[in-house]
Amino acid sequence: MNLSVIIPLLLFLMLIFFIGLWSSRQLHASKNFLEDYFLGGRQLGGFILAMTMTATYGSASSFVGGPGVAYTQGLGWVLLAMSQVATGYFVLMILGKKFAIMARKYNAVTLIDFLKGRYNSKWVVITSALSIIIFLFSAMAAQWVGGARLIESITGLSYTSALFLFALSVLVYVIIGGFRAVALTDTVQGIVMFFGTLILLVATIIAGGGVSSIVADLSAENPNLLTPYGSNLDLTPSYVSSFWILVGVGVVGLPQVTVRAMSYNSSKAMHRALIIGTIVVGFIMLNMHLIGVFARPILPGIEVGDKVMPLIAQEVLPPWLAGIVLAAPMAAIMSTVDSLLLLVSSAIVKDVYLNYMKPDASNQRVKKLSITITSVLGILVFLMALNPPDLLIWLNLFAFGGLEAVFIWPIVMGLYWSKGNKYGALSSMVVGIGSYIAIDQLTTTPLFGMHTVVLPVLSSLVVYVLVSLFTQHKVTEHRF
Amino acid sequence: MDNNKNSDPRFKIAHREALIGVGLAIINFVWWYGFAYGLGDQAPEDYSYIWGLPSWFVYSCIGGFILMTILVTFVVTVWFKEVPFDEEEGGAE
């Protein structure tokens, strides 16, 4: 295996490691450990906020899997991926200032704190905590498998040693540095993703002899690759459009993204993040998926989609540059798992332990516990990823759409509709996840030609509104 | 979206901005869908090309992205208002 590819990659891992170490120093002096560890003391500025949102959201599936599908489907898949531009502005605008203000009013450190303050219901809290712990734990493990596979394919290390290397570099900075370390490393990782995809796209275009010549090659092979309908013309407009809910506007319901919408320090930071976030998300998504399409004439016949990105980088770039560029998908995976790890840990420490088991725990005890739980979770994920059980892979299928169906309405309606109440929230969560799993299990072709996520999201809205209205007399209307 | 009269004046700004967000997403979607399936719905050999790429793709994906960047920058700098987040400085009741 090529050493000049591996060295830049290792340097990148070390850089991330030192940033984590550096930001952990600020934690030592902390008066309010909980808020600092899980929310960075609500002090994020605009640039870091934009980068950490983008990086958390752009995970292995979009970064390694996405270009692979674009390679097979052509420009139609780039079209689908561009629905994600909306995440750059939609989440922050919808949750926006209201969420930032309410989160401070409720003194919320986690998304669940917000739900607790809004609905004042034990059952809402427990259901949310369980959904986060179960689904995000599985999602995290699946991402670790992706990260290890990537290292394995680039370096030629065995899967186990690759996983160990990956686990070690992520765990250390998350455990000791908390949210601030995660946000800072996300920023570096986001920058790497931004320039990595740009360099690779340019190099791919040059290697293919220019855009016109690549397009001509694609057209000669299969003209459908140039249509919005996919290589077999099976991407229907309604199917592609339904991704606007899954990876576009529905992202408002993803806890790992939502928690970032309470972490910024001022409305100025939010304004900056809106502009930067839109540019960065759109730029990365466009470049990355175009790389997948353009790679096709240069390296025809790649069977495994996940290998498109590593193979094309090593084909069109000098080895040392390929190493740097391949740090980009690595960065995408790391910046997602670090956020998930911290989120699951906060659900256990803050939402379960402090809420219901020991509300009066001292700062010192909370500190010890947070670090211990984060470490134990990390080790657990490592063990799971060594030999992923089927249940975990099954659960991971629901991690994205399922969580959106659970959380989107209790958050959004909770913010903007004063009549929404705990009965509405709880039944909407149950219906959301229940119908998601049911539809996924019972149907073999897309329902009404749309992605599974659509119906659960719609039905959980209807249930939220109806149940809230029917139970109005039971609770006093919420005063914001 | 109706709120009690004595509610926080910052919420009026927040509600307006959330609605702007919904408006932007609708514009984004219509542009994206209209160009992709409006121009892309013909035999590939009849496509016109810009910068070597099919024109539906350039308008929908690249143009749409540039449009949204401009719109977001515009609404944020012109329409969005800065509000304090902390209770003591904020519009107390």
UniProtKB/TrEMBL annotation, chain A:
State the GO CC annotations.
plasma membrane
Residues annotated as coiled-coil are: none
GO BP annotation list: sodium ion export across plasma membrane
Cross-referenced CDD domains? SLC5sbd_PanF (cd10327)
Q: Which stretches are transmembrane?
A: 6-23, 44-63, 75-95, 123-145, 157-179, 191-216, 236-254, 274-299, 319-349, 369-386, 392-416, 423-442, 448-470
Keywords attached to this Swiss-Prot or TrEMBL record, sorted alphabetically, are: Cell membrane, Membrane, Transmembrane, Transmembrane helix, Transport
- In which compartments does the protein localize? Membrane
Primary localization? membrane
Q: Which InterPro entries match?
A: Na/Glc_symporter_sf (IPR038377), Na/pantothenate_symporter (IPR011849), Na/solute_symporter (IPR001734), Na/solute_symporter_CS (IPR018212), Sodium:Solute_Symporter (IPR050277)
Pfam (any one): SSF
Question: How the protein sits in the membrane?
Answer: Multi-pass membrane protein
Q: Which GO terms describe its molecular function?
A: pantothenate transmembrane transporter activity; sodium ion transmembrane transporter activity
Q: Does the keyword Transmembrane apply?
A: yes
PROSITE patterns reported for this sequence: NA_SOLUT_SYMP_1 (PS00456), NA_SOLUT_SYMP_2 (PS00457), NA_SOLUT_SYMP_3 (PS50283)
Q: Which domain of life is it from?
A: Bacteria
NCBIfam families from the UniProt entry: panF (TIGR02119), sss (TIGR00813)
Q: Which family does it belong to?
A: Belongs to the sodium:solute symporter (SSF) (TC 2.A.21) family.
Q: What is this protein called?
A: Sodium/panthothenate symporter
Q: Which organism is it from?
A: Pontibacillus chungwhensis BH030062
Gene that encodes it: panF
TrEMBL record, chain B:
Q: Would the keyword Membrane be found if you checked this record's keyword annotation?
A: yes
What's the protein here called? Sodium:pantothenate symporter
Q: Which InterPro entries match?
A: DUF997 (IPR010398)
Q: Which domain of life is it from?
A: Bacteria
Q: Does the keyword Transferase apply?
A: no
Q: Keyword set for this entry?
A: Membrane, Transmembrane, Transmembrane helix
Give the stretches traversing the membrane.
18-36, 56-80
